[in-house]
Amino acid sequence: MNALRRDAFFDRLPDEVEIENAEQLRMIVASQTSDGEGARLSLAQDNGKIETITLTPALTESLLEVLRLVSSGRGFRMIPVEAELTTQQAADLLNVSRPYLIKLIEGGDIPFTKTGRHRRIRANDLFSYRDRRDATRSSALEALARTDAEQGLI
Q: Residue 124: phi, psi to the nearest 5?
């Protein structure tokens, strides 16, 4: 195991040292965070000077989420909202096949552009579709659970 790896986690899983480091840092940041507020951290610089930084709530939650992923041994990929994705990247993010994704975009469910003969999907549009899909699935599951409850099946 190499404790000094510098490559990102999008194509590999964290090693034991990275998992331990992430958990330790997660605990430190979480201990300095109040509900709905950011974290206030004091960091020692190489020259011994103490620098205090206050993270916004959004930045604190984002940092904690990354640390949770790493400390649980999972890899991840950060995707800017304005990024343009290939159809394969978009299919991977939705956990569907590329041919199924092509049907979705050509059916008008997800907007896309063409660069030459290649289709590109904005990450923001893909995330919007995913949120709509998940909301529809959740509603359908709730309806099924209500029906089961009404019929005494659960």
A: -60, -40
| pTM given for the model | 0.64
Helix axes 87-94, 123-150, angle to 10 degrees: 30
The helix or strand, by DSSP H or E, that contains position 84, with its residue range, turns out to be: strand 84-85
**Residues 154, 148: contact at Cβ < 8 Å?**
yes
The model's pLDDT over 6-62, given as tens digits with 9 standing for 90+, comes to: 567 777 889 999 999 999 999 999 998 877 788 889 899 999 899 999 999 999 999
Rounded-to-integer distance, Cα 57 and Cα 39, Å: 7
Q: Buried b / exposed e across 62-99, counting CB within 10 Å, b at 16+?
A: ebbebbebbbeeeeeeeeeeeebbebebbbebbeeeee
Q: 3-class DSSP state for residue 34?
A: coil
How many other C-beta atoms are found inside a 10 Å radius of the C-beta of residue 110? 22
> How many other β-carbons are positioned within 10 Å of the β-carbon of residue 55?
19
